[in-house]
Amino acid sequence: MTMPVYASPEQFMRDRSEYARKGIGRGRSVVVTTYSAGVLFVAENHSPTLHKVSEIYDRIGLAAVGRYNEFENLRTAGIRLADVRGYSYDRRDVTARWLANAYAQTLGSIFSEHQKPYEVELCVAEVARSVGEPVPAPGETRLGAPGQRDQLYRISFDGSIMEETRYVVMGGVTEPVASAMEKSFRAGWDLPTALAAAVSALGAGGEGAPRKLESGQLEVAVLDRTVPERTFRRLDRDLLDQLLTPPSAEPAATPAEPTEPAESAEPVGPAEAADAAPADTAPEPGPPADEQQPDH
C-alpha cells in the first residue's frame, strides 16, 4: 500500500498561485488610468463582441483579464448585486469600494476552498462626481460625496485588493507596460494624450520590438464625469482613429524678403521748397482780355 503524497499548506497555496498567474499571463494586457475628465480603459482585444471592459453601475466600470467565462460570471454577478443594493437603499450607496470588497471576498473564498482558483484579475473604477470642489487628502475617504477623487481598485485572483491613484496594468507581461506608463503618466492629462500613452505602453508589452496597435486591435471606454447619470461609454473605431492620429503640422510660412529701407529725405527750407515746386504747374488764369481796362 502506497502512502499518499503529503504537501504542506504553504506548498499547496504556492502551487495554486503559480497556476493562476500563468493563466493570467497568457492573456493580453489592460491599462486603466485617470485623466482630466474621468477614467480611461484601454485593452488589447481583437474581438468586437467579447468585451474585457464593461459598465457595472452609474459611475462604476469594470476591466478584467484572464479566462473569459470566469470574469464574465463575476461581471454579471456584480451587476445584479449593485442593482439590488441601489434599489434597496439608494443609488449613491453603490460605490467602487463596496463592490471591490464583494469581489475580493468571492475570489478569496474560491481560491482557498475550491479545487481550482479563478484565473482572473479585476479592476473596479469609479469616477468622481465633481471636480469643482476640494479633493480629499490621500488618507481621507469620502465615497459618494461630491469632490471625491477617482477610485481605482485592483483585485487579484486570491482576493487581495489594492487601491491605486494613477493607473492599473493587468494581464500579459506587465513589467514593460507598467514601466512605460510610469514614464509617460501626467496628472490631469487630456483624453488624446492619455490614450496615446496607454496604446504606446500596450505596444511595448510582449517579446521583441515594440508594436504599433491599430484601432481595430483595441477596446476603449471611458467613465466621463461630465455626463450627469450613466457615465460609461465606448469609443468606436472612427473616434479612435481621430484621437490616435496626430494633428498635421501646418507648413511654416515662407519668410518675406527684407526690403531695403527708403532713403530718408533731408529736411528742406521754405525757399528750397518753393524752388522744388513742379515746373509744369500752370499759373492761375487772369481775367478775360475784353474786361481788362486800358492804361491811363
UniProtKB/TrEMBL annotation:
Segments of this protein annotated with the region Disordered: 242-296
Biased composition (Low complexity): 242-283
Pathway connected to this protein: Protein degradation; proteasomal Pup-dependent pathway
GO BP, sorted A to Z: modification-dependent protein catabolic process; proteasomal protein catabolic process
Pfam families, per database record: Proteasome
GO cellular component, one term: proteasome core complex, alpha-subunit complex
InterPro entries: Ntn_hydrolases_N (IPR029055), Proteasome_alpha-type (IPR023332), Proteasome_asu_bac (IPR022296), Proteasome_sua/b (IPR001353)
Coiled coil spans: none
Activity regulation field: The formation of the proteasomal ATPase ARC-20S proteasome complex, likely via the docking of the C-termini of ARC into the intersubunit pockets in the alpha-rings, may trigger opening of the gate for substrate entry. Interconversion between the open-gate and close-gate conformations leads to a dynamic regulation of the 20S proteasome proteolysis activity.
Any one GO molecular function term: threonine-type endopeptidase activity
Location(s), subcellular: Cytoplasm
Protein family per UniProt: Belongs to the peptidase T1A family.
NCBIfam families: 20S_bact_alpha
Described function: Component of the proteasome core, a large protease complex with broad specificity involved in protein degradation.
Oligomer status and interactors: The 20S proteasome core is composed of 14 alpha and 14 beta subunits that assemble into four stacked heptameric rings, resulting in a barrel-shaped structure. The two inner rings, each composed of seven catalytic beta subunits, are sandwiched by two outer rings, each composed of seven alpha subunits. The catalytic chamber with the active sites is on the inside of the barrel. Has a gated structure, the ends of the cylinder being occluded by the N-termini of the alpha-subunits. Is capped by the proteasome-associated ATPase, ARC.
Designated name of the protein: Proteasome subunit alpha
